[in-house]
Write a structure and sequence with these properties.
Number of helices: 9
Shape: globular
Radius of gyration: 19 Å
Strand content: 15-25%
Strand order of the largest sheet: 1-2-3-5-4
Structural class: alpha+beta
Order of helices and strands: EEEHEEHHEEEEHHHHHH
Helix content: 25-40%
Length: 294
């Protein structure tokens, strides 16, 4: 049987999940075979709603999907988060069915010739800080913030950034006490080399500062072949040369955070709102890619 659309997903062990009836969906092709297994694109047979289907077979992929399923079950039903439509198993493979979103920031960056203007970057920072604040309130660190994992919505949410791919997320609070976890001596690297925080390269336990520093790297961008060397040697002022001072302050702020510190999201957002005002720019959700009809 299939889980009815809109029903809360089962967050227990994979063996207790219900069966997903894929005949409910029309599969149109394979989108990606990435870190969580196979990702198919399709649509609901009746409603025609575009969907993506994540399918895992290997044990490591099943664990990643289980993490995603738990987080989707706790996310607020608000703009900026993909909607989980179905969850279960199909022929002994774990499956998540999600609403299909629009292009990624990486797609849009390519469309715009490899760079965004100050207004677009500042507005991106404001939305992404909001997403990270919500995600951190759930007790998790994302650990893989990058342009490929930030997508626009469709239709009425086409100007809203959506944060996706939670398989690498790690809790930073103890599940029973709610207290911040302790920093271990060794935590294996995970994430994307270009945007992973220097703390991850040094195999420190992830905490909220990691996501803030990844955001700073994302706004300034590294050459992935030289990322670790640069992160260890380059100063924030060198990293942000030619950019407004706010980008340097964001990087310095993240680097100076202690392991258990909570980010001051309000102050960081205020900083980018002021940056827009200083340059007489409106926070009107008009982005560089709009000139291409996106």
């Amino acid at each position: 049987m299939s889980i009815r659309e809109g029903r809360a997903p089962n967050s227990s062990s994979p063996e207790s999940l219900m069966v997903v009836n894929l005949s409910t969906y029309r599969i149109e092709g394979e989108f990606d075979a990435g870190g969580c297994g196979t990702v198919l694109v399709g649509s609901h047979a009746r409603s025609k709603q575009p969907v993506v289907m994540k399918m895992a077979s290997k044990e490591v992929d099943r664990l990643l999907l289980a993490t995603e399923r738990r987080i989707y079950a706790r996310l607020p039903k608000a703009r900026g988060w993909p909607r989980l439509i179905d969850a279960g198993t199909y022929r002994k493979r774990d499956v998540l069915v999600l609403e299909r979103l629009g292009p990624s920031l990486q797609d849009l960056l390519n469309l715009c010739g490899g760079r965004f203007g100050l207004k677009t970057v500042s507005q991106l920072a404001l939305q992404l800080l909001e997403r990270l604040e919500t995600f951190h309130e759930l007790g998790y660190v994302h650990r893989d913030l990058k342009p490929d994992n930030v997508l626009l919505g469709r239709g009425t949410t086409r100007k809203t950034l959506h944060l996706i791919d939670f398989g690498l997320a790690e809790p930073y609070r103890h599940p029973r006490t709610g207290e911040h976890i302790a920093q271990d001596a060794f935590f294996p690297f995970a994430g994307t080399i270009e945007f992973a925080p220097v703390f991850a390269h040094l195999e420190y336990t992830p905490s909220r500062r990691d996501d803030i520093l990844s955001l700073a790297y994302m706004l300034s961008r590294f050459d992935p072949d030289e990322a670790l060397l640069l992160k260890l040697r380059i100063t924030p002022s060198e990293l942000c040369r030619g950019l407004p001072a706010e980008f340097q302050r964001l990087t310095e702020y993240a680097l100076q955070m202690e392991f258990c510190d909570a980010p001051d999201y309000t102050e960081l957002k205020r900083m980018f709102r002021n940056l827009l005002r200083q340059h007489s720019m409106q926070h009107d959700l008009h982005f560089d890619w709009n000139r291409f009809g996106c």
